Amino acid sequence: MIIVSWFTYALVSLFLYGCWGFFSKLATNYINPKSALIYDILGAIFVGLVFITVNNLEWRGDIRGVFYAVITGVTGTLATLFYLVAVSKGSSSIVLPLTSLYPAITVILAFFILKEPMTLRHGIGIILAIFAIILCAGD
């Protein structure tokens, strides 16, 4: 049995997010961002239906987990809408790197709300992310 590490999954995710950003720009070259979002959601539903079919998914779980999963979907969908509007109006080479700095927000929220530790490396990364936002957003 082949055991796939977290790193392999992360690399596949990285590649797919890269394709997602590229295809988003192509989509908004031909249709408006709101239409692109609807088709994006249809694609997600398709993947979900295939996933349910292949894995014989049972609907169960802790209500808190379900709540946070739904909120994840809502925030992700809204983020995608705002990303599609931004990429339709701006250059994907600037919009995508800028929006890809979202882990800094996650680290800050985890530090303040979940009381997760923040290392010096995390702090420096967040400061560099702020500088990256300034550099990417500048004319």
Question: What does this 3D model show about the protein?
Answer:
- The protein is mostly helical and 139 residues long.
- The protein folds into 2 domains: 1-91, no CATH class; 101-139, no CATH class.
- The protein is 80% helix and 0% strand.
- It has 6 helices and no strands.
- Helix 1 crosses helix 3 (63-89) and helix 3 runs antiparallel to helix 4.
- The protein starts with 5 loop residues before the first helix and ends with a helix.
Tally of separate helices: 6
What's the N-to-C terminus distance?
52 Å
For the report, how would you describe the main beta sheet? none
Overall mean confidence score, pLDDT: 89
What count of domains describes the coordinates? 2
Structure in a nutshell:
Helices cover 80% and strands 0% of the residues. With 139 residues, the chain is mainly alpha-helical. The radius of gyration is 18 Å and the shape is globular.
List the helices and strands and how they pair.
Blueprint: H1 6-30, H2 33-55, H3 63-89, H4 92-99, H5 103-112, H6 120-137
Helix pairs in contact: 1-3, 2-3, 3-4, 4-6
Keywords:
139 residues; mainly alpha; 6 helices
